[in-house]
Give the backbone structure.
Amino acid sequence: MGIAVITGASRGIGAAIARKLAHEGHDVVINCASNVDKAEVVAQECRALGVRAVAKAWDVADHAACDAALKEIKAEFGVPTILVNNAGITKDGLLVRMSEAQFDDVIRINLKGTFNMTALCGAMMMRAKTGTIINLSSIVGVTGNAGQVNYAASKAGVIGLTKSAAKELGARGIRVNAIAPGYIESDMTDVLPDEVKAAMLNQITLKRAGKPEDIANVAAFLASDAAAYITGQVLVVDGGMGA
Ligand code: NAP
């Protein structure tokens, strides 16, 4: 089996993806920003499944930190075969009241972080002539959302990055795809006001919020040979929210 690097895997969707890929037999590197204790718990759960797993904190928005982390991972585990760019944040606010820092922080982590990891890990995968990259976009990157110009722009950017990287790396056998989740239960959505949650639920055809495992199952499919002929795609996993 392969070596999977999952960014933002200390909790939520990233942790579910790490557990799922470990369950399928991949060694896993569990990245986080600062919650190393939580990332270590996820690593322990993965090791209990019989694979190698490490927790590592670095800021995906920091190019030099990504470079150093990937070099360490290569030395310890080998070239990653799966990269999941899942780390992400929200700093919501209305357009005319949004500060420059609110905009920049979200773009830096969600979009530039995805660029940093895709470019650096993609270079390693190109030399190895194998690998697959999965980027977490969002349904709001497709539809837009009031109060989230920064987040929606970052997630629309991730779609453009995914499609372009797929075209550049495809000839070397590397597939690049994105997942666009809808409303998934996690710390990110837990902080939303009840009326916002109710309004989102009302828009969902399947009449329930998604679970992190709903996304992890799709990530595992995209990472697998069952998806060997899929690249440059955005899989919307939103229970019919954007339909
Ligand atoms: P979450 O529960 O808030 O977890 C965010 C994760 O990202 C944490 O592991 C956090 O690490 C990590 N992180 C944040 N900034 C980072 C940085 N600079 N460098 C490295 N790691 C960083 O989020 P989630 O709901 O699971 O979302 C995961 C992804 O799915 C995000 O990209 C999000 O935009 C996307 N998404 C989520 C939803 C949803 O409804 N939840 C919908 C659409 C898309 P620490 O624990 O150390 O802070």
User: Anything to note?
Assistant: DSSP finds nine helices and seven strands in the chain.
